[in-house]
Amino acid sequence: MSITLRPVSIENWYDCTRLTVKQEQTGVFPAPVVYWIAESKFVHDYELRVICYEALPVGFLVYCRTPDADGNHWIPALMIDEKHQGRGFAKKAMRKLIDHMRQLGCQRLMIGHRPDNRIAGNLYESLGFLRVSEEIIEGEVIRLLELN
Question: What is the pLDDT of residues 63-89, one digit of tens each?
Fold first, then answer.
């Protein structure tokens, strides 16, 4: 299964906006892709990627180019379209992103997810992301992956 992370561009941005989660998942992924595209025009640190299987857009992710004050690079969003969930695309995309961040010299990757999103929690744990705190911070469980 060939997964690529392609920059969001004039050619594919509209296809990205058509990616959606299942209705029952809107509580754990409330912001649609179009929100992230719009926000990236004002938060210049955001890098947007469409997750493609072959040439087909199957998901979307956002990561930060530069670290925060504590040296952490954040992944603000990851989603797989409702029609393509359960096929391992999220895990393969995250592995590609982790490798990319290592090549950029990133030392620490951070990601958050809603406490009731057990699928995301299990995915991130399987990739080595450890829970930072038992506290819920701004409505999310925060996880860290050390890339040393």
Answer: 999 999 999 999 999 999 999 999 999
